[in-house]
Amino acid sequence: MKEKLKSAIKGNPFIVWLRILFDKIGESFSLTLYSGSTNQTKDIFKKQAELQIRIHALEKGMSIGTVKVGFGKEKAFAIIKDLVNLLKRGGAKQFVVESVSVLQKYVEFNKNMGADMTEVERYLHKLCSCYDIQIMDVGGIYNLSLKEISSKLKSPFDEFSQLRFSVRDFGTSPLNIEHVYAALRLCERTPSACNRQSWRLHVYTENKLVAKMFKLQGGSKGFNEQMQCAILICGDLRNYGFYEQNLPFVDGGIYAMNLLYALHYYGVATIPLTMGHKRRITKKIKQEMHLPNHEVPVLLIGVGTFKDNYKVAVSHRYSYCEYVKLNQ
Ligand SMILES: Cc1cc2nc3c(=O)[nH]c(=O)nc-3n(C[C@H](O)[C@H](O)[C@H](O)COP(=O)(O)O)c2cc1C
């Protein structure tokens, strides 16, 4: 009798709602304190993180197949101004060196396309001379070829994994959907918490649905029309207890990376696209795409084919030594 009562209380929706509410309130304090959205003016680390997103946006722009000549000048001016402020406030010089190097690539890229970049260059040089910044060979774009990539798709992992890039410059040859199915089959082996396999996938290939999905996601402007398929990875909340609300994103994230590699293995061009939106937007996406209420969107993958010659953003990576602590 006591056990029955205990399990009835445990599973009672009102009790669970209270427990979730209690957890979320607790969580909201550290989220408010540590979230990148707060105190950017005081916290240099947060400011750097925000700047990195804006610098990467310029790099992404360079990797879009049909980018406008001289794009992003206003953004570049604002970034340079903020980099100067960052240095004045004691920000990491190495970060500024890397940022300036990406900006230099951005200037060269636009100049090569025939844009007048004199003003941006002048600002950039002023920053470099005032703070003794030596430009490095960091960031920008790589020009790749389908021939080169295809010959390495079945290489050992250490080579294969280094050749997957987010593509924003897709080809027009039709996507072979059998390759998508083959990749999905490989991903059946993805590990998950307690082997729950709670990912739910929505694969869109009809033009109208593909276009609608990318428009709602909003992060593929300039190349959304080149993609032929959209794969939305969601997590099924019914598989998780109230205390494991982040696990759908962990399981879904692991699945997503596996799928990116699997698609690459079959010669399919991809790009991961964020589903981290404000609640209002997520709600709209769920409604418009008729997603079940018990699913949470984890990641969208844009899918297409490779061009014979295409470009990708370099997206400079830190050495693992910068974020790995061994026995500390
Ligand atoms: C969770 C996630 C969300 C992303 N969202 C977007 C996006 O909305 N738009 C975009 O152009 N790229 C997006 N990207 C691609 C990243 O910019 C890219 O993965 C990163 O710069 C590393 O480059 P790489 O994928 O070529 O190695 C996203 C990547 C991840 C992992």
UniProtKB/TrEMBL annotation:
Its cofactor is FMN. PANTHER family: NAD(P)H NITROREDUCTASE YDGI-RELATED, NITROREDUCTASE. InterPro entries: Nitroreductase (IPR029479), Nitroreductase-like (IPR000415). CDD domains: Nitro_FMN_reductase. Residues 164-214 form the Nitroreductase domain. Belongs to the nitroreductase family. This is Nitroreductase. One of its GO terms (molecular function) is oxidoreductase activity. It comes from Bacteroides xylanisolvens. It holds the Pfam family Nitroreductase. Keywords: Flavoprotein, FMN, Oxidoreductase. It comes from the Bacteria.
